User: Fold these one by one.
Assistant:
Number 1:
Amino acid sequence: MASTKEIKRKVGSVKNTQKITRAMKMVASAKLRRANYAVLKMRPYADAVEEIAGKLVSTCSFSDHPLLLLRDEKKAEIIVITSDKGLCGASNHNVLAAAEKMMIRKRKKGIDCKATIVGRVGIGYSNFHEWSVENRYSGILEKQIDFNDAATVSDAIINRYISGETDTVYLIFNKFISVLSQKVQEVRIVPIAELSKKNDNTQYIFEPEKEDLLNKLLPLVIYSQIYRSFLEASASEQAARMIAMDGATNNASEMIQKLTLDFNKARQAQITRELIEISSAIEAMR
């Protein structure tokens, strides 16, 4: 059994760790409220953009705009969104595992796969596993998420698609469902021809011309999808971190109780030993 001094040192160390995990839980909880609010505000906007674009695309042919053009999939790009920090449970692992599986599936079909990584955790993972990476972005989810960051990422993939460097672009991220539930989403965002499924038989009159609307609206669809994924991933990260830190805090409490019990046992054994030594000394003096 460890000495009382060693046990007291361990208890102090665990208590210090518990203070950190409790503080991290509170910070994550505050950030989650803001992130959840941003997600709830963004979802109707993103849905409305896709609905309007769907009505426009339903009247077009695939040749009306490069972003609608369906090509044989020989080169694919996967945008993988992770956090910039760890300590958020299996959140990042689930996204990276989904990306790894998609790459394996594509390569078995002879499709060349490259990745665009958002987040330092994903960057570190891709470097270690030697992924073929087009772009790396860090710090986007760590600060207040800016629509311009989504535009920067979107412009890069749009240019690669139009130039023929890639045939399809997929997005993998954690969708925020609730504090206890986040689900990995895999979405094809380029080409965006699947919006044509949201068609109806209504005849529309376009002002300005259809070509001008397509040039402005279709990139905006991609911008909003990526921006929304940033917000969803940020909310999922904070929810996962809050749950992880709550579990760590509870585990620390259990460990403190166990160490306190061990301390009491060690102290009692020490007292008993000292009493025996005193009694033995008294008997020896008689």
Number 2:
Amino acid sequence: MDFATVYERSAPTILEIGFGMGEATAQIAALRPQDNFLCCEVHTPGVGALLKRIDEQSLPNIRILQHDAVQVIDHMLPLASLDGAHIFFPDPWHKTKHNKRRLIQPPLIAKLAARLKPGGYLHCATDWQPYAEQILEVLSAEPLLKNTAAPDAGGYAPKPDYRPLTKFENRGIKLGHGVWDLVFQRV
């Protein structure tokens, strides 16, 4: 995929996997007009909602792929082509027997890390502590990634200014859950 052609400009490109209804995506794209956002979502109402936001807010830096992110990574994204990737509040699959369905697994992270440019980043966030611990374990085990968190932070990063409070985060806070951000960099 030639991003300069897709966006009609050369700019850092960030992959967003699973944008839900697109509210946070639109806010981030508005805050970071200098970056391009390639957004994958399979949920049709979410795609429609983000398309509406793009039109209403005149956001020329977003492109949407209504397709499975794993297939996009496998077949459309060249190695070392992304400047960053966002995975915010993926489904935690709370039941232990369903944990294998979680998105953040070693095979996906290996593929995604290979698509990041050296110095590119992967930012994940969750409001489910057991999933945060699994994400930290999976990302820490990937040899192409290094944690950007301070050594005394337990592996978790402070919430970056560009990530708005999402409906999932607000829901988690109301339920008394913590929120964990993990930001790793491609070596």
Number 3:
Amino acid sequence: MPSPMIVSRRWMVTTIAALAIFAQSAAAMAREAPGSFADLAEKLLPAVVNISTTQTIKNPERVPEMPQFPPGSPFEDFFKEFLERQTRPDAAPKRATSLGSGFIIDAGGYVVTNNHVIADADEITVTLHDDTTHKATLVGRDSKTDLAVLKIDPGKKALVAVPWGNSDDSRIGDWVLAIGNPFGLGGTVTAGIVSARARDINAGPYDDFIQTDASINRGNSGGPLFNSTGEVVGINTAIFSPSGGSIGIGFAIPASLAKPVIDDLKQFGRTRRGWLGVRIQSLDPELAESMGLSESKGALVASINADGPAAKAKLKPGDVILKFDGRDITEMRKLPRIVAETAIGKKTPVEIWRDGKRMTLDVAVGELPEEPEEVAKAPEKPQTQAQGQVVPGTGMTVSPLNPALRERFGLEDDTVGLVVTDVKDGAAADKGIKPGDVVIEAGNKPVRNPADLIKAVEAAKASSQKFLLLRVENPQALRYVALPLAESKKK
């Protein structure tokens, strides 16, 4: 056995060696941090532009109400004269202006910005870094991703363009540089790091924002977010701030999402997106358990467009999409973006969970059609006394459909199932089931009379299931619900 002195010396040698390695790593990391962004900023600033828009606001047709003043008040004549001046027919229309940022992506004069920067604009002006101005035409825009492409004619002037980078390679902690035109001051550079990835801020269906602490203020919208090599990895779009100014929480559209959209807008003037033809919902642990899944990952198919690609590939409501084109669907919100980015017409493998087992279907991705007009919500009918039969242990009363109930709840003639006529405190209410909802299936079997549903509940309890899977429809949505059951009977 070695002496304590030898052990101590070995420990000291090992510790010193470890400290030396750590010091070398720290020194290397310190060398990677730039001492200055001056050279990079000088190179990139000429590609970043200021965008100003003008919008004509017509005189209001409705005259604002006159404020109430005490009789004889001097303010009465003042406001009367002011309102008459503002609303007279021959008054000149007002012109509103706004400012934003953008950047040049090729020498031909194409400029990228946010859609909200140029929305409703009558005139768009692009001001270059050398203060020369150009009238811009709108090539195309996409409200879902808040992106727009403009075109200017630079004449013989040589434009400086910036390249796209791969935002998928950006890591939390990487240096980034934001350039824009905050508050109309002109080209302004701020630096920070990537604070987070894949942020969903409920801005649109394809949210996948890069979060950064590089200062982004009003007027920065549409400006580029650069990596340390001068490539565009994001488009500055939004901030989180109680005051309206930067508090170090800014969001940028990643280049990997923006570039395909920009390419489509340049080529077609619109965005062409992949389309599966399904309505999906999140898979919570209760739904996953009721379907025999060990994890609540994937996108649950609630309904299928009758003429869509999914229907042609034999997908069914109740299928859980686990993988699309080899990419894991870890959460529901990822699927729309992955499908949208897939080439139209591509035959794509889709791995699903159906009836307790995995299977793979091939789907030919279609093109997302124009959004249909919104169907007006049926007016609410006056409530009448609940009718039907109570489903024990659920707190809900259901009834077969008849003309009176269809009229009462605004249901279509082709709707089938059991309509919920009343809901008391209980499992159904906890899951958001309301009067007017229609239960179509229970345990993946159709229900057409209350006895069908009661039998399904009793069978689930007898087999010690914790939840009963219901398929529920209303005029706004079709979804699956994992209905909690009362304490199950033991076999």
